[in-house]
């Protein structure tokens, strides 16, 4: 009873830390399951490095793999992958809130505050919401239900759209019955695993099928707060939250700019877009732009991209998708807030403004902290893996950022990593998925009221 009471107290008093523990336990559980002989097509025990990496990639909805996902795993292993990405897609705080409900039968006030801070479309900063937002706490249950229902409805709808496309592509009706929901889950969760050894290469001219995948990835990148806002307000643009507006505007802008840049850089590359006509090149460029934002699907060999294109893809991956979404990265709203701060400083404005609203300074500090921590993790991982492998730095950086931002695209380096580098990249994926949650919890935990102010002195900057 004391143990149960202790777990209940910890789950309700510190849900962010509880979320990290839940994620860790899930990874350990799936590592054990992937290690079973029944999970491998060969019927043999999977080595620890491969089982752990696959578990982390699955739970963190990354999509990177050290083995051939199609040929290595048995049907049971593929089922574990499908279950794992859907669990991971629910998000760290949402998962912690659900587990807290299971253990305590209710959400404490603090748990509601933090859950609302992750999913509330009207939130003002990361971590616990302020007093002005506590009026929304009654909607936490509805928000958590929205996460589960939207995942179910969107994946079911994508399955219905994908099934006939697979039949047209020559897949048998029986095989399409499990490939369709598999593709739907991998698209919406922004994971990028495929149920075929050739990946999406056979579908390079199936524009309808690829468009449905882009739609699923786009919905996954928006995030549950934006999905809820769109469902409630629909076309009442003035009622959209600032978070929803910034997410959609930045997402569309990055998609368009990324597509145009890839088209300009790769149009004459004989290993990628060179043999294609203008229409094919344009479509594939925008498909690549969408997938580098966290989707993870690819119709071309990423390792054949020009170095300049790899750098552009690295930048897009680092940004990622929307907050409280299935995508990774530093998030598009983080980029938007920092860009607005730079613009406001250049214009000499006393405060950061956007679309008729003022963005408080604490949001800017959190955005800067997320970028700084993300860049630090990526730099350390890149240096470590580059030293271990002596591989080209652009390939190492691309795969490391792909892991950190839970994208899943690879230059081919990941499959060739030695076991020590596999563990480093697995840790990078884990920190990329739950690192911002830990940061928010640390900021909340160390926040104290200060009843005095120190003297002001301005250091020279720049």
UniProtKB/TrEMBL annotation:
Keywords: Cell membrane, Ion transport, Membrane, Transmembrane, Transmembrane helix, Transport. It is a multi-pass membrane protein. InterPro entries: Cat_transpt. The chain crosses the membrane at residues 18-36, 48-67, 79-103, 207-231, 243-265, 315-343, 363-384, 421-445. It is found in: Cell membrane. Pfam families: TrkH (PF02386). PANTHER family: KTR SYSTEM POTASSIUM UPTAKE PROTEIN B, TRK SYSTEM POTASSIUM UPTAKE PROTEIN TRKG-RELATED. This is Potassium transporter TrkG. It comes from Microbacterium candidum.
């Amino acid at each position: 009873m004391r143990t149960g009471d202790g777990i209940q107290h910890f789950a309700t008093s510190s849900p962010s830390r509880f979320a990290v523990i839940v994620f860790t336990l899930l990874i350990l559980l799936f590592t054990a399951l992937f290690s079973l002989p029944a999970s491998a097509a060969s019927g043999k025990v999977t080595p620890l490095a491969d089982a752990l990496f696959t578990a982390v990639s699955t739970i963190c909805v990354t999509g990177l793999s050290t083995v051939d996902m199609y040929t290595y795993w048995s049907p049971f292993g593929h089922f574990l992958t499908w279950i794992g990405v859907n669990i991971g897609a629910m998000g760290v705080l949402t998962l912690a809130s659900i587990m807290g409900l299971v253990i305590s039968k209710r959400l404490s006030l603090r748990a509601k505050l933090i859950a609302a801070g992750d999913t509330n479309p009207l939130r003002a900063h990361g971590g616990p919401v302020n007093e002005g937002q506590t009026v929304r706490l009654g909607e936490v249950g509805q928000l958590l239900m929205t996460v589960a229902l939207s995942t179910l409805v969107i994946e079911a709808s994508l399955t219905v759209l994908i099934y006939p496309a697979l039949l047209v592509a020559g897949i048998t009706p029986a095989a399409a019955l499990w490939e369709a929901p598999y593709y739907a889950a991998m698209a919406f969760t922004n994971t990028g695993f495929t149920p075929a050894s050739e990946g999406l290469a056979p579908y390079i001219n199936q524009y309808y099928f690829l468009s449905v995948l882009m739609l699923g990835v786009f919905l996954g990148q928006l995030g549950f707060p934006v999905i809820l806002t769109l469902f409630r307000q629909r076309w009442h643009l003035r009622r959209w939250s600032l978070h929803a507006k910034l997410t959609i505007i930045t997402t569309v802008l990055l998609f368009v700019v990324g597509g145009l840049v890839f088209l300009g850089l790769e149009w004459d590359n004989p290993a990628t877009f060179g043999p294609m006509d203008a229409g094919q090149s344009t479509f594939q460029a925008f498909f690549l732009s969408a997938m580098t934002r966290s989707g993870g699907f690819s119709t071309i060999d990423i390792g054949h991209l020009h170095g300049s294109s790899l750098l552009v893809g690295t930048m897009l991956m680092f940004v990622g998708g929307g907050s409280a979404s299935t995508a990774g990265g530093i998030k598009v709203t983080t980029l938007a807030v920092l860009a607005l701060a730079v613009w406001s400083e250049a214009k000499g404005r006393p405060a950061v403004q956007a679309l008729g609203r003022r963005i408080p300074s604490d949001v800017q500090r959190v955005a800067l902290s997320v970028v700084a921590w993300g860049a630090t993790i990526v730099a350390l991982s890149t240096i470590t893996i580059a030293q271990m492998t002596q591989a080209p730095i652009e390939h190492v950086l691309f795969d490391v950022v792909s892991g950190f931002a839970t994208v899943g695209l690879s230059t081919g380096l990941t499959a060739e990593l030695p076991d020590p580098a596999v563990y480093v990249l697995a840790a990078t994926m884990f920190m990329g998925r739950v690192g911002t949650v830990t940061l928010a919890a640390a900021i909340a935990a160390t926040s104290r009221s200060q009843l005095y102010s120190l003297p002001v002195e301005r250091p020279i900057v720049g």
